[in-house]
Amino acid sequence: MQLSEHILQTRGLSVYYGTKQAINDVTLNVARNRITAIIGPSGCGKSTLLRCFNRMNDLVPRSRITGQVLFEGQDLYAPDVDPTEIRYQIGMVFQRPNPFPKSIFENVAFGPKINGFRGNLNELVEKSLVRAALWEEVKDRVNASALALSGGQQQRLCIARALAVEPRVILMDEPCSSLDPIATLAIEDLMRELSQEYSIVIVTHNMQQAARVSDYTTFLMNVENRGGQLVEFGDTRQIFTNPKDERTEAYITGRFG
After folding, report:
1. Model pTM?
2. Triad 56, 146, 150: Cα angle to 5°
3. Which residue, 66, 80, 188, 253, has most beta carbons within 10 Å?
4. E strands within the chain?
5. What pLDDT, in 10s, does the model give residues 107-126?
6. What Rg do the C-alpha atoms of the chain give, in angstroms?
């Protein structure tokens, strides 16, 4: 894979919360317009790594990083980089659906409004809901409360909300963990469709989900209590059928973790 095909990169990335090291020396390339899954046991730094990509860790007291995180070759942690602007370009969908206590329309329109959007807001909201595969279900009630939607619909609404600000990358932190199997499959189908236009990074504890939806898989584990380290990265099919590291095989076959 050529450098131009990488939209995000880490170089020797380590993350600390106070004196506790959460990630240790992770070097990783994230492919453009592909889905990259991050897997590993609880406490290995999966979500920490994900949050480094849009500087959400800045909001955690006493957090600090060493190394680099690059977006299109630009150091995201350079002094002149605005974290708020980064979060528009690199959106986040969280573990549990978190719609605002507003209408469906206002949820999707919120980001563009505060970002100074001056185009046709109705068209943008519809376009975002269509992309999130939700429009047909809500088009007759866009002014109804978002809180009245089902869990799976709320998660797709949160995806639409992220899409409305025209991001380049979508980060997903276990987006299906609180959903039933039918809603989970709907989100997975949506991820595959969105990957034609967006680069997606997903943290998941579900090995079957990682195998189903991702193009590339990153396996992290906590080594000697020094934070999560990258054990293996590769094509998802290779990782799940012919892992190169015996620790990867032990994890994906359920022998530990």
Report:
1. 0.92
2. 95
3. 188
4. 6-17, 20-31, 35-39, 63-71, 74-75, 90-93, 169-173, 199-203, 216-222, 228-235
5. 999 999 988 888 999 999 99
6. 18
Q: What is the DSSP letter of 243?
A: -
Measured CA to CA in angstroms, residue 200 lies from 105, 113, 138, 164 at distances of 24, 24, 25, 16
Distance CA 151, CA 137 (A): 13
User: 16, 23 in Cβ contact below 8 A?
Assistant: no
Quote the pLDDT of residue 155: 94
Structure token digits, residue 176: 């299906």
Q: b vs e for 54-75, b when ≥16 Cβ sit within 10 Å of the residue's Cβ?
A: bbbbeeeeebebebebbbeeee
β-bridge pairing 6-17 and 20-31 = antiparallel
Rounded Cα distance, 86 and 165, in Å: 11
Separation of alpha carbons 53 and 139, rounded Å: 33
- Per-residue buried b or exposed e for 116-151, using 16+ beta carbons within 10 Å of the residue's own CB: eeeeeeeebbbbbbebbbbbebbeeebeeebeebee
Mean per-residue pLDDT, 33-57: 95
Residue 78, both tokens: 């350079």
The helix (run of H) or strand (run of E) holding residue 163 is: helix 151-163
Q: How far apart are CA 33 and CA 76, in angstroms?
A: 20
Residue with tokens 């590769």: 234
What distances in angstroms separate CA 240 from CA 2, 32, 172, 250, one per listed residue?
Answer: 24, 21, 21, 11
